[in-house]
Amino acid sequence: MLKAEHLSKVFIRTKLEEEKDKKGKGLKKKSVKEEFYAVKDISLEVGSGEILGILGPNGAGKTTLLRMLGTLMEPTDGRVVMGDAQGGLIEEPVEMKKNIGYLSGNTKLYHRLSTREMLKMLGDIYNLSKEECEKRIEEIFKVLDMKDFGDNRIEKLSTGQTQRASIARCLIHDPDIYIFDEPTLGLDILSADAIVNFMKEQKKLGKTVLYSTHYLEEAQFLCDRILMIYKGGVLKEGTPAKIMEETKTENLRDAFHVIMEGADEA
Amino acid sequence: MSTKRIKSLFKRELTDIFRDKKTLIMMVLVPLLLYPLLIVAMTLITSAVMSDQEEKIYKAAFYQVEEAERIQDVLKEHEEELSYKLKIVESENPENALVEKELNAYVTAEEKEGRVFYSIHYLSAETDSVTAADVLYDGLELFREELRKEAVEDSGLDENVVLYPINYEKTDMSSKEESMGSMLGSIIPFLMITSICLGAMYPAIDVTAGERERGTLETLLTLPVTNFELIMSKFLAVSVIACTSAFLNILSMMAAFGFMFVFFAESVQNLSFDFATFVPATLFSIVIMLVFALLVTAVCMCVCIFAKSFKEANNYITPVLLVFMFSSYAGMLPDLKLTAATAAVPVINVTLLIKDLFSFQYNYGLFAVVLFCNVAYSLLTVMVLGRIYNSESVLFAEGFTSVKIFHKRSEMKQGQLPGYGDLLLLLCILILGIFYVGSFATVKLGFAGVFVQQLLILLLPVGYGWYVKTDFKKLFSLKAPGVKGVLSALCFFVGGFCLNLVLSSVLSMFLKDSSESLQKQFDVLLQAPFPAVVIVMAVLPAIGEELMFRGFTFGIMKVKTKPAAAVLMTGFIFGCYHFSLVKLIPTAFLGCLLAVLVYRTGSIFPAMLMHFANNFVSLFVSKYQEQLEDRFPALMNLNFGGSQVLVFAGMVVVGAAFLGLGVWISRKKE
Question: pLDDT for B448-496, tens place per residue?
């Protein structure tokens, strides 16, 4: 179980603004510093065996939200907690990270290591014993079909292979919670399907999955619940079916358009 | 902190670095090849030059010299002794021939007061000409010697009594090892520091900016490790590489030079050394170098961490490393000695220590100081590194705020506050301004020059603030001080004055004031009418320096960082600005107090008042020292015999009490 309470994140950003000069002719650019809420007061809770999809246009705050949920980034306000096996709550980022598998477009791998070497190093950090770690690596290689290239240096792998190596990285410590930021972005159909199937499998195993995507069809069939965010705030939350019903649309893509138009008018 | 996690991260960093070909080349191949190649090149060049010189025959002429033939005979006779061959040619127009380089030098003669006066004409810009002239000069000396002997013989005197009543010679008492050591001591620090810098630079960039460029930083952040563990593992990995690199350098250097000596020692008997004498120096050097490598590593990482790419990191690190390398030249300066003071100066202390070690001067106390300082600086830098690495804006590369002045004024946002970049730039401009304009004006105009300099300090921050359209009230804390502000300024002044007197007296026991010329300059300035002196040296600094340091500097700092850090930094910068080692601590202390005053009262005017009072009292005492001594002898010559410590303690108590009072007066209302 992963729970976020009133999360907010403020950045200071520089923005170029255009304005007319004194005589009223010609546009001038000037840079302005401003506080800017990347995420504003979002609360959510995801339980075991549930897949939560986070949707929203570019710049909506998806990545920042996921970074805070993965405890990579400290929220300006609010907090993130996680349920442990005994029914208590974990709040300590380092402790939480032990139970989270986080993957995003920005989590690249060390090119000069092979997947196996990388996993061994991670095993050490996650405090796995040597035997345990090796057993786990064999399992992962089998599940992700990586035996052929598991010992090659990562710089030599193809895009699809690299993505599988990235997933292997999230799996090594067998976490209860997966946070995937656009995991299927830029992959071919086969690789993307493999990842979607992987998430389904994890759900069956009772794991918690949070993921963000731009592929709405994928989200419609995969997610138990959808969180639509825009400009740092929540626009809509609910099951895909409920969202489609409320917007009187046939699929999630149309629903997305309807909701976005509504948001821009408001 | 888990050592196990640090260990596995460290192992990964090392594997990663070692699998990078560029690092390997920089670290292993370059040092291994560099020294042998250097020696081969040196040998080749030297032998080429030597053989060239041996074969060379210089052309010289005697123009209208009566005794030309006799001098030629002398030259011929002593050809071996002079070790150069001279060919005497005829020349009708030697001056022309010299310019046309047909001649290397020529001699003319004329009669002056009954004696012959010879002139050797040569071109100082031409090496050959200089050599030829030297030979001719020596030749003429020999000729004069001969004439003397003849004269003495003719007059029937004893040559030994008249010409050589005494004999003398120089004897070098230092052993071969000592002269060798002094040579090694000036070269080795430079080579070692350079090699450590080069060794640390590449991996430092790789684990910071390189990591970010490759996009693996966020991956690291997903791991259950603290930022401190991350940075420690990186720091250790880079240190290991830097140390290895330095070690390889030393080995390669020793192997190459050792080989050269063994090789040459066979042919030249004089060059046999007892290498064992250098063992202690080498061992100590290795210890100090290892510690120094930690410092270099930490500094390199601190700088590189801000860079978003390899290229950017390279740009940042180059000037830093240049400073390190230039400082390592300190060993070649003859007058710079390792003392308690220089032992605390980073880089230079290492250089001087190694120089001492190789000159067989083992001062264990200073060695300990240097070692301690380097460890302390390294720890401090690592702490700073940890702090920087903890901040999200660095980790997620939201980046530094750009320097504002590079935009057009019309693009400036009304009421914005400058940032660290602006502060750094303005301080640089200030230093340049004082260096060029200020010192020029002071030398040329004297008293009026000081006025110009003070005006410069006043105008710079104000001008900068105007250009970026800053909020003057906010940046410079322009707020009416109120009665409380004035009262607390006076309390701060008295307290600060007492404490500073004690501080200066204590410091003067350790640091010698070497600024006699400054003191003289100051005395000259005091000759001006007292009101003018007060205006230029108390009123203007109180306004200008306060606007610059407690206004601009502190104004930026207090927004960007915690109050305590802002106060300390402002004080430190203010101390450095006085360009004097003796004044550094007292002025930094004063700067801190002034910043506290601004912070407490929210207004710059109390600080101006305190600054004015402080300068005014100093000026007044200096100007009317004699009169004051006449009138208040007890006060001016505080002499309590052996109870100096008691007086100091009393003054500390009084000073602290006044400061406390000042703080209490300026307390903020709830």
Answer: 888 888 888 999 999 988 888 888 888 898 888 888 889 999 999 999 9
- Show the CA angle centred on residue A244, arms to residues A240 and A247, nearest 5°: 140
Contacts of B410 in chain A (CB under 8 A): 21, 28, 30
pTM (whole model) above 0.80: no
- Listed in sequence order, the residues at least 6 apart from B5 whose beta carbon sits closer than 8 Å to its beta carbon are A124, A125, B224, B225, B229
Helix axes B348-358, B176-205, angle to 10 degrees: 150
Q: Residues of B numbered 6-25 whose beta carbons fall under 8 angstroms of chain A's beta carbons: which are they?
A: 7-9, 11-12, 15-16, 19-20
**Cβ separation A109–B226 shorter than 8 A:** no
B500: its two tokens = 């500073």
Q: Per-residue DSSP letters for chain A?
A: -EEEEEEEEEEEEEEEEEEE-TTS-SEEEEEEEEEEEEEEEEEEEE-TT-EEEEE--TTSSHHHHHHHHTTSS--SEEEEEEE-TTS-EE--HHHHHTTEEEE-TT----TTSBHHHHHHHHHHHTT--HHHHHHHHHHHHHHTT-TTTTTSBGGGS-HHHHHHHHHHHHHTT--SEEEEESTTTT--HHHHHHHHHHHHHHHHTT-EEEEE-S-HHHHHHH-SEEEEEETTEEEEEE-HHHHHHHHT-SSHHHHHHHHHHHHHH-
Residue ranges for chain B with pLDDT beneath 50 = 398-401, 640, 670
State both tokens at B468.
């970026």
Burial class (CB in 10 A: 0-12, 13-18, 19+), B39: middle
- B454 token code pair: 């003070």
Residues B337-364 pLDDT 10s: 888 888 888 888 999 998 888 888 888 8
CB contact under 8 A, B225 and A125: yes
User: Is there a contact between B246 and B201 (Cβ–Cβ < 8 Å)?
Assistant: no
Whether residue A109 and residue B219 make contact (CB cut-off 8 A), yes or no, is yes
Give the bridge partners for A77, in sequence order. Answer: A8
Q: B399 phi and psi, to 5 degrees?
A: 85, 175
B66 at A interface, C-beta within 8 A: no
Pairing mode, strands B85-89 and A233-238: unpaired
CB distance A125–B221 less than 8 Å? no
- Residues facing A42 on adjacent strands: A7
Give CA torsion, residues A130, A134, A139, A143, to 10 deg: 120
Q: Are B416 and B471 in contact (CB under 8 A)?
A: yes
Whole-angstrom Cα distance, residue B598 to residue B548?
Answer: 13
Question: Any idea which residue has 């020292």 for tokens?
Answer: B625
The answer to whether A150 and A115 are in contact (CB under 8 A) is: yes
Q: In this predicted complex, what is the ipTM?
A: 0.85
Q: Report how far residue B117's alpha carbon sits from residue B436's, in angstroms, rounded to the nearest whole number.
A: 48
What parts of chain A have a pLDDT lower than 70?
13-33, 266
C-alpha B372/C-alpha B380 separation (Å) is: 12
Model pLDDT, residue B45 = 85
In this structure, the dihedral spanned by the alpha carbons of residues B456, B460, B466 and B470, taken in order and rounded to 10 degrees, is -140
* B203 contacts B240 by C-beta, under 8 angstroms: no
**Tokens standing for residue A119:** 């996993």
Separation CA B108–CA B121 (nearest Å): 8
Number of residues that this document lists for chain A? 266
- pLDDT the model gives residue B332: 77
Q: Which two tokens stand for residue A118?
A: 């990388």
Edge to edge, the sheet with strand A89-90 lists: A27-46, A2-20, A77-83, A89-90
Q: Tell me the per-residue pLDDT of A128-144, one tens digit each, with 9 for 90 and over.
A: 899 999 999 999 998 88
B324 vs B193: CA distance, rounded Å = 8
CA dist B293 and B377 (Å) reads 12
**For testing the chain A interface, which of B217, B221, B413 should be mutated: the one with the most A CBs within 10 Å?**
B221
